[in-house]
Amino acid sequence: MPELPLWAALPAAVLLIVGGLLTLIGSIGLLRLPNFFMRIHSVSMGNSLGVGCVLLASMLIASALAHRPVIHELLITVFMVFTAPITMIVLMQAAIKRTKPPRK
Predict the structure, then answer these.
(1) Phi first, then psi: what are they for 4, rounded to 5°?
(2) Could you tell me the pTM of the whole model?
(3) 26: Cα within 13 Å, side-chain hemisphere
């Protein structure tokens, strides 16, 4: 197995720890917050930032081991950036319609 250089290992470790903590905080918010609207905000913010940190760490490690820029993870990032907000908007609209009183 190839050796990972220290200049890549340290920032990648920090990014993985921060990404894990952000994802954990978002997931705890999902369990602890009182209503759907607050829960959806904590999950969308925490988990999106956490995934971003993990993807950056993955790009850094892969680039260091391949001795060239590896940007395959950008496709995952683009997919997350486009789909996560759209999913959250659709879920929020459904929740708003479900909680509104019926019109007379």
Answers:
(1) -90, 125
(2) 0.80
(3) 18
Residue 29 contacts residue 39 (beta carbons within 8 Å): yes
Contacts of 14 (CB under 8 A, 6+ apart): none
Give, in order, the Cα–Cα distances in Å from 98 to each of 29, 43, 89, 90, 104: 22, 20, 14, 12, 16
Q: For residue 37, what pLDDT is reported?
A: 84
User: What pLDDT, in 10s, does the model give residues 28-68?
Assistant: 988 898 888 888 887 777 778 888 899 999 999 999 999 99
Both structure tokens of 101 = 């009183």
Q: Please compute, for residue 98, the number of CA atoms within 13 A of its CA located in the half-sphere on the CB side.
A: 8
What's the token pair of residue 95?
């929740």
